[in-house]
Write a structure and sequence with these properties.
493 residues, mainly alpha, 2 domains, 21 helices, 70% helix, 0% strand
């Protein structure tokens, strides 16, 4: 562990190292050094190719700094450090080699350009709250101003390759931070250290959703990092957990669901941070010159949020729509009586999911109050049971659920494994392994019903984390039957 003064030195060193890593390609790109440099994908991607060079140096320097400060005494202590370097190089190579593919990033850039031209960003494929587009637009303006400070005239249109470069560098940083936060969460969930290091590392390699996120230049990594931070900070720094929730809710709406466990757990400081963060991330862009009217535009767009029938989109809407399609219903024609049926089916399925999650919550509360549990079991169930269900709920109730969005489920996967090792005496290890592979390892394809493999995997993990398994362990035989009857009758009332 790093503590006290070493923590400050470690964080300071990392910030300096990150600045070095992203600024070195810019320096190498300057006129006067260009005779030593060429590019393969074109000049607009030269910075990213050079980032492969600078980030490689940065990763090894980071390992040296952490090694000096932590002073690992064994190979097991060194393992997280060198696995971070390995994963960094692995994803750095993929990130650099796929940066020339457009993915979803043009949607973000087009929205930012629209804001700079005082137009609405919601006429294309930008489906997010305003903050992401506002951030990219502000970054573009800042690059123009920064060039002016050094006497370099920078045309606004020429800033976008630099903005994309900074975006991609942040993607790599998000992967590395998410990896280390995942290791920390595994320890909080009482998984053995060596097991957690190997398991988490495997999840960051065999991970189709993460691969799709990197290839498509999606912002789900930001949400994953935020969710991990929320879970780790909620009991230590609840106000900042609320602020992080607000930030992630301004990128994609569904992390705001964490307001429920904040309220249920009486985390008033977290709720205060959430409210304050929501306000700040609206007011700061306005103070920087962005218009209030963008929120009206976003509200109008949100009411007609697009939904998709593609089987690889594992949302409940897609499931409802394709069930109707298989029965011969015409759900696409304007005049069809079935046109609104998928939406109705989606709402009914969401109500079913909400009811199921409420039942799990009530079951957990009854167990905590009515059953004697060892301290570790009680701690895990009280602190993480409902919180982790909300991680799953983010995806279950989402109206659109593409493959790349599944990176966010990682905390729940760790919870499912911890549940088998720490909370039940009859672990379902094969089922857990199958559910994890269904979510992470299966490639993307469109074939009804097999494309719904990821949501099926999540349902498997929800099944093996059913609080009733704890009840069966603690109250065997007829006592379990009697208490179970009392429990379920209480819930029905």
């Amino acid at each position: 562990m790093i503590s006290g003064n070493r923590t400050f030195r470690f964080i300071s060193a990392l910030l300096i190292l990150y600045l070095f890593t992203i600024l070195l390609p810019v320096a190498l790109h300057w006129e006067g050094l260009s005779q030593f440099i060429t590019n393969f994908y074109g000049e607009q991607f030269e910075l990213l190719e050079l980032f492969g060079f600078s980030a490689t140096i940065g990763l090894f320097l980071w390992a040296y700094i952490e090694g000096r400060l932590r002073r690992p005494a064994s190979w097991r202590a060194w393992l997280p450090i060198w696995l971070t370097v390995f994963l960094g190089l692995f994803w750095l190579s993929i990130l650099v080699e796929t940066s020339s593919t457009p993915g979803d990033y043009p949607c973000y850039q087009n929205a930012a350009e629209a804001l700079l031209q005082n137009k609405t960003p919601y006429r294309g494929c930008y489906f997010y709250p305003p903050l992401l587009a506002q951030g990219l637009a502000f970054l573009s303006k800042s690059i123009v101003s920064f060039g002016g400070l050094f006497g370099q005239g920078v045309a606004p249109d020429s800033t976008w390759p630099v903005v994309f470069y900074l975006f991609q560098s942040l993607q790599l940083l998000s992967i590395l931070v998410a990896f280390r936060l995942s290791l920390a969460l595994a320890q909080e969930l009482k998984l053995k250290k060596l097991l957690s290091v190997i398991f988490v590392s495997s999840l960051f390699v065999l991970n189709t959703p993460l691969l799709r996120t990197v290839i498509l230049h999606q912002v789900n990594l930001w949400i994953l990092t935020a969710v991990l931070g929320i879970i780790l900070l909620i009991n230590k720094k609840p106000f900042w957990a609320g602020v992080i929730t607000a930030f992630s809710g301004h990128i994609k709406v569904y992390p705001l669901i964490f307001a429920l466990p904040f309220a249920v757990g009486k985390k008033w400081h977290a709720l205060l941070g959430l409210v304050a963060g929501l306000a700040v991330f609206v007011l700061v862009p306005v103070s920087l010159g962005f218009r209030w009217s963008i929120w009206q535009q976003y509200g109008q767009f949100f009411l007609r949020f697009p939904q998709y029938n593609a089987p690889r989109n594992n949302s409940l809407y897609s499931i409802a729509a394709n069930i109707l399609v298989l029965t011969g219903a015409d759900v696409t024609s304007e005049g069809s009586i079935w046109r609104f049926a998928p939406r109705v089916g989606y709402y009914l399925l969401v109500l079913g999911v909400i009811g199921w999650l409420v039942w799990r919550f009530l079951q957990t509360r009854k167990i905590i109050k009515g059953v004697y549990l060892f301290d570790q079991k009680r701690y895990l169930l009280v602190e993480y049971g409902f919180l982790m269900d909300m991680v799953a709920a983010q995806l279950l109730v989402s109206p659109s659920l593409w493959e790349h969005q599944w990176v966010i489920i990682l905390p729940f996967v760790l919870w499912a494994v911890s549940f088998q090792y720490n909370l039940t005496r009859r672990p379902h290890i094969p089922a857990a392994f199958a559910g994890i592979l269904m979510i992470y390892a299966v490639p993307s394809f469109d074939m009804i019903p097999f494309s719904y493999v990821r949501i099926a995997g999540l349902l498997v993990l929800l099944w093996i984390t059913n609080p009733g398994l704890i009840l069966e362990d603690e109250l065997p035989g007829k006592w379990a039957d009697r208490y179970g009857q009392y429990l379920f009758s209480s819930i029905d009332k």
